[in-house]
Structure prediction request, 84 residues.
Amino acid sequence: MELNFKQKVLLIIAKIPKGKTLSYKEVAERAGVPKAYRAVGNILNKNYNPKIPCHRVIHSNGGIGGYNRGIKQKKRLLKKENYL
Prediction:
């Protein structure tokens, strides 16, 4: 059974190791749709599964990006993982 784009995105993000990040664009590329980085952001915005570390996805320019639990929480999580 082939995974749809959303399933691929969530699987890719679930595999990002602690202390590492991927950009929205890198996730889109790995999911097979390189220009769908905005779609990646929309998928993450609607995800509340704690097993999917959405906080590990950032902008290509190194900017923190959004987070559906708040930017302060995203920064706190990244700092805890020694990313920031």
User: Anything to note?
Assistant: The two ends are 38 Å apart (CA to CA). DSSP finds four helices and two strands in the chain. The helical segments are 5-14, 24-30, 37-45, 71-80. The chain has one domain: 5-80.
